[in-house]
Specification:
The complex is a heterotetramer, with two copies of chain A and two copies of chain B.
Chain A: H1 5-30, H2 45-52, E1 60-62, H3 68-74, H4 78-86, H5 120-133, E2 139-144, H6 151-162, E3 167-173, E4 176-177, E5 180-181, H7 182-185, E6 202-206, H8 210-225, E7 231-236, H9 254-263, H10 266-276, H11 282-305
Parallel strand pairs in A: 1-2, 2-3, 3-7, 6-7
Antiparallel strand pairs in A: 4-5
Helix pairs in contact in A: 1-2, 1-3, 1-10, 1-11, 2-3, 2-8, 4-11, 5-6
Chain B: E1 2-5, H1 6-20, E2 24-28, H2 44-47, E3 52-54, H3 59-71, E4 75-79, H4 90-97, H5 100-103, E5 113-118, H6 133-137, E6 143-145, H7 150-162, E7 167-172, E8 179-182, E9 195-198, E10 203-207, H8 211-223, E11 229-233, E12 236-238, H9 242-252, E13 255-262, H10 267-278, E14 288-292, H11 301-304, H12 311-322
Parallel strand pairs in B: 2-3, 2-4, 4-5, 5-7, 6-7, 10-11, 10-13, 13-14
Antiparallel strand pairs in B: 1-8, 6-12, 9-11
The chains are: A alpha/beta, B alpha/beta.
The complex binds thiamine diphosphate (2 copies) and magnesium ion (2 copies).
One thiamine diphosphate sits between chains D (65-66, 114-116, 144-147, 172, 174, 176-178, 243) and B (29, 57, 59, 81, 85, 88).
Chain lengths: 326, 323, 323, 326
């Protein structure tokens, strides 16, 4: 799985799209346009992009409460996502889901999830579906280090292994479980080490280095697609913002945050990697950023101009409109 | 018409549907060996190899896998060995299966049936005898289905499997072996339609699950008092066929709502409240509820008999309402 | 009397009880950092070191640990960050905590409080806005407590901590910061006693949680129509103070039961059914229910406003019942 | 933890008490006196007795659906247990619990449990209670190999490790999860191997050999009592009867069962061990068995002669009679 210049550029572009999307969403929150809460993915972009660059459109992805990045990397449109964050009728979920439920089923991105660890079982289920249908689709589940403590992790990964399902379990270990450093609540440092309990490979990579992520994910996706079963892939990463909006971050120093932003920003690291290989000119870089910026501005305009959902939408989509019994 | 047991009717329905639709599969604990705990999944492994999965003890995982498979277009039929174990998978049922269509703005759906063997059977005490229909009624996005006869079991099960949305399918363990006639050929009972199991003029008994049979017995006893009672079986509790229930109550002017589960905040409470709201001016007596007292299920047979409502409890409740 | 916010009242109650009784400890996610998500556990780590545990994300484990500690004579105060996550620990709540006393024939007991921040607050959609009081009412062995004011919050919380049996303690997130007077000194409110929040003659509003405040507002509006309504706050839903509720309804002849949760098979249904049963001959109009429609909580503010019942919904319901 | 002759005799006696208690309960079931179901412990006696011989009266034990042995080994009285199985008022739980809920709180045997894996969290909780109170009580949780698949195993053991609690997690790996051989549903052979995920020692012993069980449990109990934290102890064992009453056992051959009964019966093995050391004369052996037999017969008489619970017992013990609020 060597990373080509072309894939690098695609990943680099997506990283900027994610970064700018979120910064804009944050700004719109301060303006009172985006409501609820945001779990910012900034700083972790290498994970979503590095993994998803290995996926086909028909592969399944399930996310977490922190899934803007997973959606965009899977190909979701930023305008409809932004509209979702505003609660508009044109949102990916018609404004019924919001940030914690963004989804694009047309891309088999089956959604963010507000319940920590709740995607692991369902992703095992999409993988089972592919196996039953005899397709070679791969399923990918993203989840945090905190989620690895949940029983769902234990129950579902064992089933993925038992039935040799085409699934990659991707743990985004950002060192924090909400407001608590991982070492205060966890008894093993590396989540990948737990793979042994399920007789599957466990791999840990530097989640700031998209090259590492891409290559490890490539192996895991290949293995899954070829019938070799699941992999538990841990990416060590870091979030640049608080856990969710309004987090005062008493639990970590601003020095720590600054250090990561300065020296471990996945976008900077990839830019450097590409420049070292002459894969990214100054000009290209500017164009990529300008285009991403334009896309996100357009997304905000789209959201702003979109209509609110009508009152009768409250009661639709609860169950199918007509019970097609026969 | 063939006569068959409740569990046989379910099995026949399952086999028919699996033959018709490749996307249906079975998943649960011990569903292959011995034909499954209730013999409902008997023969599936042989006839549909690769479409039945015997799992670790991991209810959250099982239902979670079901949710994902359903989102990806399959139709899982999930067996939980006892209703009581759904407590180990409530996030999957309530926050995932039930809400997926809504949260995704209609993009996704979860066509999954969860089979829930429930109620008192062999004496197994508090952790193996629960019912809890009202929990799932209270969750928007779920359908709650409770057949009382082999024919309804088959017809509702087939409809449940074909439903585009999740169905909580209640199977009272004690009636698995009870027999009844089942129509030949394709037999479907729509979800959301109550059934008048007996017509009558003087009072309406709304009876859930095994209380239907007990109410029909009670109806015969009550003939001696000169009372002609109607017995309505809602068959599905969500959606609830309020029209059929209310028409009957408007006709008779009296309602007795009967379920085996504990009455307090139970299914019978919703039905009673709904009747009170809609039929107030037709009611000649308070709407009565018959159910278990608000206690866990004890073990001793001597205690159990004071918990589970009997045909006699129905008779007394009707008599009280008639006076 | 001091004026304080709802969450401050809880905090004060917690500190007082922890100072009084060494066996009390706190366990939950993020309960130390930032003073806990709702600042209710603020200061506990400093004042009572070693008696507060910040846990992994493992609700089943957390409640399970609480059950064991309680069986061994401790008094755990468990915080679940959102009510919605109790779905991850239902076996522990329902099959273990609630039934332990009964199954053991009275040998064991589980003096544990589970704090359940619930309802719509910031707009967080379907998985972070649920209420589900009726689930726990339906489970024998559990007490269900729902304070609506800071004073009740403190008094009921202290009683809950002292209770020998498990208490599901509902805290509506939206009223954490609402202020009210709290009596000085030791202030205890017994579980199982309703409170008449306003006296009136023409109709009884039975209001749960934040619907109390909205009903009191509605009562003022209704004065313009010449209606003098009584507002009864059950404060605990299990045990339910049927005496106070029924006395009021017998006096006024009209009942409107209001809760924020979805009405279908909700807490309001039990109360309505109970009133219908006990006050039939005193009722001048059907017992009305006010609650959410049977839908998951949407995200968009534009949709949410059509879901959560308002003071105006109470006014309309009362007007309908008066006509 | 060397096993003395004295302890051996005590264990041997308890093994016979368990074996005969269950055979009698089975007989009473066939007579229609014991109702509900029984999960027979016969064949696994070395585990309960070997572990409990290391415990003090005030140590906590929590069990499973298969807990007659755990109760008796912790010191519960067979007559009250038998009465419980009959559903009599004199039963350990006043007839409200039955076989799946037998308990003796006076001995800190906090009960069997009908929900697989449900005791692991509560046992972690009793251990937390001891730690908070500063006692040196140890808590022991028994559970099956099937239970190790449940999320509660993963969630609770991690907490036991995190807070270095005085607890021993004892997995009775009898090779079957109800009617399914372990290899059909599990992805690791040894449950003890999963201990690494929780940074605690994992030990696997021959569960038919009470000497091995006793010594390994002794180590684990000592470690817990001295503040060293939890151990995951797996005992490889076998059940001689079906999973519960009425099990036709299509899933295993009678040869397999006979082989275990013949050559791997923990009672026979201990008898041999003692005889080899001259710790058990023929006479002693006969006396022990005769006394155990007499005890169990007396238990049945006690159950038979005991009154049924009165109807008003239905509604007691739901919550405490008086809410002692103040
Ligand atoms: C079952 C459950 N418990 C608790 C929460 C509250 N919560 C939301 S995110 C979070 C922390 C998640 O940590 P981690 O899995 O590491 O993901 P991260 O936020 O670091 O990306 C918590 C505790 C939840 N949403 N679901
Ligand atoms: C949560 C839960 N799921 C399923 C069951 C049904 N059940 C009872 S015992 C059992 C098998 C348990 O296997 P194991 O843990 O190995 O214990 P063993 O019976 O072999 O002693 C099952 C599936 C249950 N009681 N609880
Ligand atoms: Mg994290
Ligand atoms: Mg086993």
């Amino acid at each position: 799985m060597d990373l080509s210049a072309e894939v690098c550029l695609k990943i680099y572009t997506d990283m900027w799209r994610i970064r700018l999307f979120e910064e804009e969403a944050d700004r719109q929150t301060n303006l009172g346009n985006v409501v609820g809460t945001l779990h910012m993915y900034c700083g972790e972009e290498a994970v979503a992009t590095g993994v998803c660059a290995n996926l086909r459109d028909d592969d399944y992805v399930l996310g977490t409460h922190r899934s803007h990045g997973h959606c965009l990397a899977k190909g979701a449109k930023s305008d409809r996502m932004m509209a979702e964050l505003w609660g508009k009728a044109t949102g990916t979920c018609k404004g019924k889901g919001g940030s914690m439920h963004v989804a694009d089923f047309s891309l088999n991105m089956l959604g963010a999830n507000g319940i920590v660890g709740a995607g692991i079982g369902p992703t095992t289920g999409t993988a089972l579906a592919s196996k039953l249908r005899g397709t070679d689709q791969v399923s990918v589940c993203f989840f945090g280090d905190g989620a690895a403590a949940r029983g769902t992790f234990h129950e579902a990964i064992a089933m993925g292994s038992l039935w040799t399902l085409p699934v990659v379990y991707v743990c985004e270990n950002n060192g924090y479980q909400q407001w608590v450093p991982r070492e205060n609540v966890a008894v093993v440092d590396s989540v990948a080490d737990m793979a042994a309990s399920y007789s599957i490979p466990g791999v840990s990579v530097d989640g700031q280095d998209v090259v590492e992520v891409y290559e490890a994910a490539g192996e895991a996706v290949k293995r899954a697609r070829e019938g070799g079963g699941p992999t538990l892939l841990e990416a060590r990463t870091y979030r640049f913002y608080g856990h969710s909006l309004g987090d005062e971050q008493q639990y970590r120093s601003s020095e720590e945050v600054d250090e990561w932003k300065e020296n471990r920003d996945p976008i900077k690291l990839l830019a450097q990697f590409m420049r070292d290989r002459d894969w990214l000119s100054e000009k290209q870089d500017q164009t990529i950023q300008a285009e991403a910026n334009a896309e996100i501005n357009a997304a905000t305009r789209f959201a702003e101009e979109s209509p609110w959902p009508s009152a009768d939408e409250v009661a639709t989509d609860v169950v199918a409109p007509i019970q097609e019994v026969a | 018409m063939k006569t068959m047991a409740f569990n046989e009717a379910l099995r026949e329905g399952l086999h028919e549907e699996m033959a018709r639709d490749d996307s249906i599969f079975v998943i649960g604990e011990d569903v292959i060996t011995h034909g499954g705990p209730y013999k409902v999944t008997e023969g599936v492994a042989e006839r549909f190899p690769g479409r039945i999965f015997e799992t670790p003890i991991a209810e959250a995982g099982i239902v979670g896998v079901g949710v994902g498979a359903a989102l990806a277009g399959m139709r899982p039929v999930v067996e939980l060995m006892y209703l009581d174990f759904v407590t180990c998978a409530m996030d999957e049922v309530v926050n995932q299966a039930a809400k997926m269509r809504y949260m995704s703005g209609g993009q996704g759906s979860v066509p999954m049936v969860i089979r829930l063997p429930c109620g008192v059977g062999r004496l197994l005490a508090a952790q193996h005898s629960q019912i809890m229909e009202s929990w799932f009624m209270h969750v928007p996005g779920l359908q709650v289905v409770v057949p009382s006869t082999p024919a309804d079991a088959k017809g509702l099960f087939k409809s449940a499997i074909r439903s585009p949305d999740p169905v909580m399918f209640f199977e009272y363990k004690r009636i698995y072996t009870s027999k009844g006639e089942v129509p030949d050929g394709e037999h479907l009972v729509p979800i959301g339609l109550a059934d008048i199991k007996r017509e009558g003029e003087d009072a309406t008994i709304i009876a859930v699950g095994p209380m239907v049979e007990k109410s029909l017995e009670a109806a015969i006893t009550l003939e001696d008092d000169g009372y002609d009672v109607e017995v309505v079986d809602p068959r599905s509790l969500s959606p609830l066929d309020t029209d059929t229930i209310c028409s009957s109550v408007r006709k008779t002017g009296r309602a007795i709502v009967c379920g085996e589960d504990s009455a307090f905040a139970g299914a019978v409470s919703e039905i009673a409240a709904m009747i009170g709201e809609n039929c107030f001016h037709d009611l000649k007596a308070p709407v009565a509820r018959v159910g278990s007292p608000h206690v866990p299920m004890p073990f001793s047979a001597e205690l159990v008999k004071h918990v589970v409502p009997s045909s006699e409890s129905v008779v007394s409740a009707v008599q009280a309402v008639m006076n």
